Amino acid sequence: MKAEETIDFPIRWAWHRISRIYNLEAQKHGFTMSIGYCLLNIDRKNGTPSTKLGPSMGMESRSLTRTLKTMEEIGFIVRKPDPNDKRMVRIFLTPLGIEKRTISRETVIRFNQVMMEGLEEDEIKAFYKTMFKINQLLDKDGIFKHEESNI
User: Does 7 fall in a domain?
Assistant: First the structure.
């Protein structure tokens, strides 16, 4: 089977190109795509519990921990104890973080506008339908479970 004939190849190919575009744009403003994505997922008014941020982004805790540490070091976020539950830490955007969040948001909007303008409505619907179905299939247990062989 050729790479071009697999389901994962065009997804991976497109994602690498998208992430490159986002990273190049983020670098112009002194951050990365991962940081931009985090900025977009932090509640601007109430902050976001650090334990809820990873699952909402589909990010592993180790990667998220490093990203949040970097964001704190460069002044995009602050961590504060939750006023109702002292065991919980909330992540809040600083004024600089809000500024960079706006840049991230505008970048995502521009990207999606270009995609929507370049695709027909039926192509967009088919894309969403297909990606939804792929995610349903990925949610099933045992995608790579094989019966034990006697090799």
Answer: no
Q: How many helices (H) and strands (E) does the chain have?
A: 6, 3
Beta bridge partners of 90: 49, 80
Kindly tell me if the per-residue pLDDT of 1 is higher than 90. no
Distances (CA, A) of 128 to 22, 41, 44, 57, 135: 21, 21, 28, 19, 11
**Nearest alpha carbon to residue 41 among 96, 116, 110, 92:** 92
CATH number, domain of 44, equals 1.10.10.10
Per-residue pLDDT band at 37 (split at 50, 70, 90): very high
- Tell me which residue range forms the domain holding 25: 12-137
For position 129, what pLDDT does the model report?
Answer: 97
Classified as helix, coil or strand, 83 is: coil
The tally of domains found in the chain comes to: 1
How far apart CA 133 and CA 151 sit, in angstroms, is 34
